[in-house]
Amino acid sequence: MDSDEQKAKEKHVEWQTRISSVREGAEIHRQIRQATQQYIQPGMTMVQICEFIEQSTQKLTGYNPERPLDRGYGFPTGCSLNNCAAHYTPNPGDKTQLKKTDLCKIDFGVQINGYIIDSAFSMSFDEMHEPLMQAVKAATNEGVRVMGIDARLGEVGAAIQEVMESHECVYNGKTYKVKAIQNLNGHSIGPWVIHGGKSVPIIKTEDNTKMEEGELYAIETFGSTGKGFVYGDGESSHFSMIGDAAK
Prior knowledge:
Creatine Amidinohydrolase, Methionine aminopeptidase, 4 helices, about 250 residues, 2 domains, about 20% strand, three-stranded antiparallel sheet, single chain, alpha+beta
């Protein structure tokens, strides 16, 4: 076998590993997502909800604490409420409880052999949030529809924004236009790296960067009845290692 044949064989094995890992992770995520939607009830603490998700992830991935990078969590579990758009996880001592009127965003990841499945869903026990959730779901589906090899990131964002901002919702008798949050994005995903270097906007931009063959993406959309802009607030609860930090 010459060097070219050897390289081709190694690439084939790598792709097979990648595909099987992504499929396994996606199926595990689907099962946990379904179980979580049935498990969550008003009155539960956010700690209870996160522990259920993380314990389920450990069980279904076969997580081994002695080899934590093989399979297990993709990133800290998020359970952001209401005007908190993303990246809230209860720290020790947090006694926050889920209320019937809350709009909760559950965001968790599953990792198999370094390949991360990043997916989220919104839920509420109050029907008043349904139009907003449907707007975001429709925008997400549109982003997935238009993405692909050679798709330009700015054009993907434009498609998401157009669908998102075609929706309206009513709160306390007042009608609001749904706005795409301009400073939150989707992103590419690399091996063991949740933010892989490319950002997928959810508004129209002039970014002509193209999606490329072999890349993995999280299409993340965020809709708001507010100004369409977020800022950092509260305690830090999400941490990650810097992969290229000086040793």
